[in-house]
Design brief:
Length: 373
Amino acid sequence: MKKPAFHNSIKSCAACMLAVLTLGMLLAGCGGSGGGAENSDSVVVINEVMSNNSVYAPSDDGSCYDWVELHNTSDRKVSLRGYYLTDNENKPGKGFLGGQTIEAGGYLVVYCSGREGIDGNGRLHVPFKISSKGESVLLTQDGGRVSDRVDLPKSPENVSYGRNQDGGGEWVWFSAPTPGERNGGSFAQDPSSLDMGSESGVFINEILYDNTFILYDSDGDYSDWVELYNPGDDEADISGYILTDNLDSGSGWRFPSDAVIPPDGYLVVFCSGKDKVTENGELHTNFKLSGSDPHVALVSKSGDLASIVALPPNVPANVSIGFPEGVDRELPDSLRLFSCPTPGGPNNTASFSIDRLPAAVSDGDGDLQKEVI
Ligand SMILES: [Ca+2]
Ligand SMILES: [Ca+2]
């Protein structure tokens, strides 16, 4: 007589468990608040880390801090409510990530700056730094459970340690870090064998910041453009280089991992604000140019200033600024105005001194246009 009762209690218990599980699944499915975001640890991983950084992902104050890139491997938006980053297993709650979400398949870059909270650019900071001599970084949850961890070896400057396949793969060293983007480009198991590209000698050769009919992009727009020139005998790898119109702002656009310039070759980059690389390889920066910009600068992968050109204001539309072919760029007056711009080719058309700009401007833009053109 007791046997059926026992079975009944098992069934009843199983029914309870099923109800609890179902309720749990429903709650998980609802995801609580956060615009449909789900709370999950298994789908979020540490994807890339930089612990010795002087050039990548500048913060709101222009400083380039250590950072950790998290990646959501799922096809659903994920909430990081209850999650933390830490560099100390015994203090799992050092860096609060709550309030952050990651889009499906997306990335979140967290600055390990020693600061805390959201900065002026809307980026999250956590109150610890990562030692370039080697340290562990852990993604933890409430209660100290470790969701993911990476044990960083000693890091050379301006390389990152990341997964060679997003969300999985092996941990390797990348010569061109990709904060907030898919991991890619050249990598190696041993950082000393990374190809960092010797200083390429590539420089900014010509700039047109007010383009209305000289060259249009694949969308048919007359975007601003910058021409780079590789004077070397070898192909120049400029992957990971940054082009910016304001070195002090901390902003800039990074060249993709396959960007190269042939020997004695030219590369035109559209400063269109479109921030994309088209299927035919056309490059578009995330900023536009104007005569009020202080300069255009090219920063190498190792963080060195490769080239900088101060922008004179009030240059007439469709007149470019550049260096005549073969000129010694250190000489005074080497930067000139060209009324016949040459995007993608040598600057071998007639040029005019920039010194003529202020005097001409005082007579009005129309006179300047007439004088230069
Ligand atoms: Ca990345
Ligand atoms: Ca040219």
